[in-house]
Amino acid sequence: MLDLFARNRVVTLVLILTLAYAAIGAAAPGYLSGATLSTVLSSSLVLMLISLGTMVVILTRNIDVSSGSVLGLSAAVLGLLLNAGVGLPLAIVLCLLTGALAGAFNGLMVAYLGIPSIVATLGTLGLYRGIMLVMTGGRWIEDLPQDLKALSTNLGFGFSALTVVVVLLIVTLWLFLRKTRFGRFFYAVGDNKAAAHHLGVPVRRVQFAAFVAAGTCAALAGIVFAAQIGFIPNQAGNGIELKAIAVNVLGGVSLLGGTGSVAGVVAAVIFITSIDSALVFLKIPAYWNDFIAGALLLSVLLLDGRIRQLIERRIRARRYAIHDRAPVPDATSSTTRIAEASR
Amino acid sequence: MVKEQAAGRVALLEDIWKSYGAVPVLKGVSLALEAGEVHALLGGNGAGKSSLMKIMSGVIPANSGRIEINGRALTHASPALAQDLGLYLVPQEAHILPNQTVLENICLGLRPSPRSLRPRVETLVAELAVAVDLDAQAASLEIAERQIVEILRGLVRDARVLILDEPTSALTPFETSALFERVRKLQGQGVGIFFISHKLREIREICSTISVLRDGVIVLSGPLDEYTDAEIVEAMSRVQLAADGGTAKAGRKVAQIGQPRLTVRGLSGEGFADIDLDVRAGEILGLAGVVGAGRTEFAETLFGLRKQSAGSVHLEGKELKSRSPRSCIDHGLVYLPEDRQQNGLFLEAPLYWNVSSYLIHRLPFFLRSGTERRIFDGFRDSMGIKCTGAGQSARGLSGGNQQKVLMAKCLSAGPKVLILDEPTRGVDVAARNDIYALIRTLAGKGVAIVLISSDFDEIEQLADRVQVMAFGRDGGQLSDAISVDAIARLAFGASEPNHA
Prior knowledge:
The complex is a heterodimer of chains A (343) and B (500). Chain A has 15 helices and no strands. With 343 residues, chain A is an all-alpha fold. The longest helix of chain B has 16 residues. The interface between A and B is large, with 36 and 49 residues. Chain A: One of its GO terms (molecular function) is transmembrane transporter activity.
C-alpha cells in the first residue's frame, strides 16, 4: 500500500484531490457540479501547456524559466498579426513558429554552446519580454477579432476547441514519452548524460528538442491566453514559469532529471487550479490564494518525502535481513535476494 | 558472412594522434585486431590507454589518424556510429541510469524495444551465470552488478569488437571465470577483444597478444608468450621492479608491532553480524572476502556512516560510543572509501582542498590557502602525485593519482588506525607498487592498518595477519601461513558443498 504511494505520485495526488473535493463539497453544497468542472478545466489550460513544456525540459536535467516571456512574445505576435488583418490560421502558425524559434534559441545556447540552462533562460526571460514590449510599444493589444475568442467557447461538456487540442497534446506527449525510442532518450539524458552519450544517444539533439518543445507549448499557451482573455496585456504570462516548476515538483518530476510522468503533471495542474476555484467558492478572499497554494504544495511534498523515506528504510532492512540469515551461498541465491529486496 | 569476417581483421588503428591543449597524450599509435583475438592492452597512469579507447569507441575525436572497424572507417567521433560498425566499449566505471530498470539500462539505444529483447538478455544472463534481477531499479545495484550490466550491454549488441576495460576489477572469482568462459566463446565466434587489465595473471589466462603503451607510444607488441612478466612490467614503467613483494614485509615484521590500537567486539549492523577484530600499532590486518561479504558495510559502520545494532568499538582502550565520521577522524580512526568517484573525491575542487578536507575542522575560521598548499606539496613530493599543481581539479587525474590524493587526505588527519577499502582498485602496476610501499611505510611508523581487499594476492603480499569475512560473518583467521589458497578457502569455505 505504502509502496503504491511512493512509486506513484499520481495516486497520492488523486487521493488528496478526492478528499479535498469531498470536504469542500460538504462545506459548500453546489461546488461539486458540471459548472465547476468546466471552470477548472478551462482555467487550467494555460498552466497545463506551460507545465508540460517545462516537464520535457526538466526530464533532460535542464530548466526553462523563460516560458512566461515566450508566452507573452508569441501572444503579442499573434495579436499584432490579427489586428493587421492577417487570417487566423496563418497567424496561429506564425505564433507557434515564434515560440519554436524562441525555444530553439534557448536550446542552441544550452545544448550546443554549453551555457547552463538556468543562466541561459534567465537571460532570455528578460530578452523575450523586452522584444515583446518593443514590438507593442509597451501598449496592451486589444480588440482581438471574434474568431480567435470563438476558439474558447464551450462546445458542450465544458470542452472548447482549445480544450480538445490540449487533451490531444497530453495524449500525444504521453504516448511519445512512454512508447517511443526517442521519448525514452529524454529520460536517459536526464538520468545520466555520460551514460546516454556512451550508448549512442544524441544527447545534444535531445536537449535541443526539449527546449523547442517547451517553446512551442508556451506559444500554444499564448494562443489560449489571448483567446480566453480577449486582449493581451504587457505582462501576459509573467511569473507562470515558476508556477509551472512548482507544478512539476508537485507532480513528481525530479528536478535532477530522469523521472516524471505526464499523468503526474496533469494531476498536479488540476490540483493547483482546483484550489483556486475552491477558494472562490468558499468565499475566502482572493489574497489568501498564494498563501494557501504554497502551504498545500509544501504539505504534499513533505508527506511524500516522509513516505519515501519510510519505504527506503524498509527496503534496506529487508535487504540486510536476508544477509543476516544463515548463509545461502550459491550463485542463484543472490538473484532472489535482490529480487526480494526490490519487491 | 560471419565466417568470412572470422578470418580477417576486425579493427585497425593507424597513426592516431591526440593532444589535450598543448599536452600530447597519443603520438602516432597503430594497432590491429584480428577476428578471434584477445589482445591485452597495458599501460601505466597517463600512458594514453583510456584516451585511445575513447577515440576508438567514438566518445572523443582524434586529432589525426584513421580508424577502421570491420573494414569500414569510423569517419567521425560518434558512439552511435562506432556501435553500428560493431564496436562496444565496456568502460571501467559502469555508466548507469539509476532511475531506469536493469533491462532498460541494458537495452537503451537499441532499436528493438526492451520487452522484445528480454528473452535474449535472459539467455545471456543464464550463460554468464550471473545474478541480476532485470526488473530491479538500477540505482539499487552494487558496483559488481553495475559492471555486469555493462558487459551484458556489449553482449546484447552482438559486437564484433569488444573493448573490456578492467572488466574483472569488481567481480568475484566465480563471476570472473564465467566471464572468461564467455570471452572464449566469443573468441570462437570470431569476435575480436581488446582486454585492458593490470592483473598479469588474468592476462596470461585469457590473452594471446599483448601491446604496451607508454607515454602515448606503443613500446612493446607481439604474441604474449614471447615476453616474460618482468619484461612487460619493465616496458610499462621503464623501472625494474622488485619481483618479490614479500621480502619487504618479511624484513619489517615482528619487531615493530606494538600496543593494541583498535578493538572491536561483537559488532553487528547492516549486512554483517558479530564481528570481532583487533589491530595493533604497526600491524597490517588484511580483511579479506568476496564482494558482498559485508566488509564495506562493516567499515562504514565502524566509521559511523551506518548504524550499529550491537557490539562495542574501543580505540586505544577508550570506547567510541556514538560514532560519527567527525568524531572518528578526531580520535584518529580514518577510513578510505571504496568508490573514489562517488564517496571519496571532490572532483571539481582543487587538489589541496581535497587533501585538507579531513583537516577542515582543525583549520582556522579564515582559511589560508598557503598553508593548505604547503600541506599538499609535502604529500605530492613524498607520494609522487603527478599533477600540474595544487590548484588542479581532481577530475583530471588518472585513477592511480586520484587514489594517492585520497591517501594523502587520510594521512593529513594523522591517523592512528587507517581503514583502506580496496585501495588499488583500477590502479596500474606502477602506482600500485607506490601505494604498497606507502602502506608498508605507514605501518613502519606505527599506524594500525586494516586493509580491505578482494585481491587475495594483495593481501598475501601486504598483510601480517588475515581475517576473513564470509556472508556477513567471521570466516576465520590466518596469522602464519598466509597464502592466496588459504584465504580463498576461508572466503568461499561455506559455499564449497554447493560447488563440489
